[in-house]
Design brief:
It contains five helices and 46 strands.
Length: about 575
């Protein structure tokens, strides 16, 4: 063929059975369907210009890469077939695009994909370069299972990326997300196991506003690095956003420091999930709403580092419930090793479950501004050895310090009025505790199974001691019950087998305490009972006054009963 030939028509050389080779000159731009159909001996085909070729069938156009054009076997499949027309176009783009500007399918063969922000439609209906229409989205599954693409650039014009859009693109290593993207559908980047670098053209506050369908919607999912305007992000400083959407940084490995700004009022589910290299959280949200138990905001965070320092800003008024709640008990908790409140802290509340299962936290100083410690606030902080409670705390919530097994002593300030149910339950190494005369109630199971506690004084301000409050404190040897106690719950001292010395200053207790269940088995193992004389003058206790069990002596204001 000479260089004047511009096209080869339909079935032009069909059934030329002796044809063995052909060279397609640069001038040719079109080869009709079946042009070489039935040329069974055609074994060599050479294109002088291998660039810009396309194959069209009834299902649409597919780009043919230069390598494929130079591969005789591949090209023979096209030109021997009656199903394809082959043509060259320098303006066609390798996408099927819907009428509303959404990329439906990628038809190209390039490993580096650049999605255009605009396009046009040719006279014969082809998608070509141009600016007549805007590309607005990427459809569900548009690139699914494509193992050729290695990089994708998504323009700022795109606002949405559909479910499974890049699902199982196993050779994808980098993606650029335009700042116009506001939503990314479920599993959009699932199984993109080699995706290591994510570039974003907006800022960090725009990024946290993207709506992600689930964890694998986020291209950071498999531990990718995040770049904002081509700079690697190591500090996520969220300073103007009011909310951090769910899954915003799910799995990111480049970020080691997070600052949550004072305007943030909500954090979505798993926003910082699996932040394995995180070392510092600066929490400055002044009045954030409580989170939900299944939010797992910082689950797995810091697992690959030496630990996370949490710094609470001076203007923070409350630590929201469930802020550091783990994915599943202590196995998936954030690796928090220290919590620091700023000087002049304004924090008044530590929310329920706030630091639950922070098993590597060793000490906490709660500032004087705090008035309440929520339920389960420090539950199962197994390595917590030192707790300082500020002078303004009035209530210690249910289970607040339960299972803090390495806590050895604690002083409750005289601002506290109530100790919640199970508040210090199973603190098995707790040897001493000071209960101030401001406390009026001790909850059910409050000191249950604190089996290294040796003595306790209940001040006269306390009026009620809950069920099982001190049960199974195996090494408790002495207790003083203040005169204000008017109620002792069921089995309050059950299993305290070494409780041999009891001092009673309450008329109610003297009158009701027996060797069995009344007043919670208080006297069951007692060998010496000291009773304030004023109690005896108004009531009786047949168990203590049984001369076959006890001898009676006087010691100042006390009558002393000694077991025979």
């Amino acid at each position: 063929l000479n260089n004047q030939c511009t096209e080869i028509g339909h079935t032009a050389f069909s059934y030329c059975t002796n044809l063995t080779s052909i060279t397609i000159p640069d001038s040719v731009g079109y080869i009709g369907y079946g042009a070489f159909f039935g040329c069974n001996n055609l074994s060599t085909i050479t294109f002088e210009n291998p660039n810009g070729w396309w194959a069209r069938s009834t299902s649409g156009a597919t780009q043919i890469s230069p390598d494929e054009v130079n591969n005789t076997t591949t090209m023979l499949e096209y030109i021997n077939s009656s199903n394809y027309t082959i043509y060259r176009s320098d303006t066609m783009i390798p996408f099927v695009i819907s009428t509303n500007g959404v990329i439906v399918t990628y038809t190209g063969s390039d490993s580096e994909v650049v999605i255009p922000s605009t396009y046009s439609i040719s006279a014969d209906g082809e998608v070509i370069e141009g600016d007549d229409y805007v590309v607005t989205g990427i459809a569900q599954g548009a690139f699914r299972d494509n193992t050729i693409i290695q990089s994708v650039i998504i323009p700022d014009s795109v606002t949405s990326i559909g479910d499974d859009a890049f699902y199982n693109c196993t050779n994808l290593t980098s993606v650029t997300i335009g700042e116009g993207v506001t939503s990314i559908g479920g599993s959009a980047f699932q199984n993109c196991d080699n995706l290591t670098d994510v570039y974003y053209t907006g800022d960090i506050n725009d990024w946290v506003s993207i709506s992600f369908g689930n964890g694998s919607s986020n291209p950071l999912y498999n531990g990718a690095n995040l770049y904002i305007n081509d700079e690697l992000v190591t500090h996520a400083n969220i300073d103007t956003a009011t909310s951090i959407n769910a899954y915003s940084f799910y799995g990111c490995t480049s970020i080691t420091q997070v600052t949550i700004g004072d305007q943030v009022t909500s954090i979505g589910r798993s926003a910082f999930y699996n932040f394995r290299n995180l070392t510092e959280i600066n929490f400055n949200a002044t009045n954030m709403a409580d989170l939900l138990s299944g939010n797992w905001v910082f689950a797995y965070a810091g697992q690959d580092g030496a630990g996370i320092a949490v710094n609470i800003g001076a203007n923070v008024t409350r630590i929201p419930a469930y802020l550091f709640y783990p994915y599943s008990n202590n196995s998936y908790s954030p690796n928090i090793t220290e919590v620091n409140f700023a000087p002049n802290s304004q924090c008044t509340e530590i929310g329920d479950w706030a630091f639950v299962y922070c098993t590597n936290l060793t000490s906490i100083t709660i500032p004087d501004s705090v008035t309440s410690i929520g339920d389960y606030a420090f539950y199962y902080c197994l390595n917590l050895t030192s707790v300082t409670i500020g002078e303004s705390v009035t209530s210690i919530g249910d289970w607040a310090f339960a299972y803090c097994n390495n806590l050895t002593s604690i002083t409750i300030p005289d601002s506290v009025t109530s100790i919640g149910d199970y508040a210090f339950s199973d603190c098995t190494n707790l040897t001493s505790i000071t209960i101030p005369d401001s406390v009026t109630s001790i909850g059910d199971y409050a000191f249950y199974n604190c089996d290294n506690l040796t003595s306790i004084t209940i001040p006269e301000s306390v009026t009620s001691i809950g069920d099982y409050a001190f049960s199974y404190c195996d090494n408790l040897t002495s207790i003083t019950i203040g005169e204000g106690v008017t109620s002792i719950g069921s089995n309050a001292f059950y299993g305290c087998t070494n409780l041999t010395s009891v001092t009673i200053e309450s008329n109610y207790v003297y009158e009701n305490a027996t060797s069995t269940s009344a007043c919670g088995y208080l006297l069951r193992y007692a060998t010496e009972v000291r009773v304030l004389a004023s109690c005896i003058g108004t009531s009786t206790n047949s168990y203590l006054e049984n001369t076959s069990r006890f001898t009676e002596t006087t010691d100042g204001d006390y009558t002393v009963y000694t077991k025979i």
